Amino acid sequence: MTTYAIGDLQGCHAEFVELLERLAFDPSRDRLWLVGDLVNRGPGSLACLREVRALGEAAVTVLGNHDLHLLAVARGGASLNRKDTLASILEAPDREALLDWLQSQPLLVRRGDDVMTHAGLLPQWSVEQAERLAREVQTRLAGERSGAFLEAMYGNTPRCWHDELAGLDRLRVIVNVFTRMRFIDAEGCLDFTAKEGLDSAPPGFAPWFQFPRDDEVRLIFGHWAALQGKTAGRRVRAEALDTGCVWGASLTALNLDSGERTSVPSRQRR
């Protein structure tokens, strides 16, 4: 059995199918990890959701910011953005089944020393703490008031984690760490202004993976296409897998057992 982790699909269904063929992926034998952002911006968001869901136990995914945006539009009263490509999902006959499945997905997946989240892991959090915090959000998403949570989920404050945070403020920071984090300061406060490469870091901030941790876990993440799959200056074991398929670059898989990477070129316009 081989386990592969694949970067952000963002609706790039044709490339996803091609990559699985290149890997000779066999769902009866192999396993697939997806770093989230299955949907949005690309042309095949509906097909991506259906494909991953149909793989059943052969595939696991974490929620990304675009996945949560879809849920917020469908069930939290948020509005579509001009560049969204989510209409096909919202109008699909199997819409509710797909949304129910997506809403039940976690923010963190762990297998031994391998930990997968969409955006990364705050260095101030142990893996065990991160697992507990991820479950807090998953419990709220599964609850009767999930719509109200989805409506109030996004926002840039608070920017810093504190153990005493409560209510929506607490959940919002957790979601932002797992799905939006790029640059942080030494205290773990998040910056939301810079979204490009490492040279766009604001004063006093650095990529989260350039801060040390107290463990040796391998962190699998996506979200940051501008990194082009590289984590320069890293001080932790971090594997960046968003190689910008939706922006015209490539879709990448990492063999978690051998460390080998396999990519297929994007079919999207740059």
UniProtKB/TrEMBL annotation:
GO MF annotations in UniProt: bis(5'-nucleosyl)-tetraphosphatase (symmetrical) activity
Calcineurin-like phosphoesterase domain boundaries: 1-139
Pfam families in UniProt: Metallophos
EC number: 3.6.1.41
The keyword Membrane is annotated on this UniProt entry: no
CDD domains reported in the protein's UniProt record: MPP_ApaH (cd07422)
Record's catalysed reaction(s): P(1),P(4)-bis(5'-adenosyl) tetraphosphate + H2O = 2 ADP + 2 H(+)
Gene3D superfamilies, alphabetized: 3.60.21.10
Keywords: Hydrolase
Purpose: Hydrolyzes diadenosine 5',5'''-P1,P4-tetraphosphate to yield ADP.
Membership in a protein family: Belongs to the Ap4A hydrolase family.
The protein, known as: bis(5'-nucleosyl)-tetraphosphatase (symmetrical)
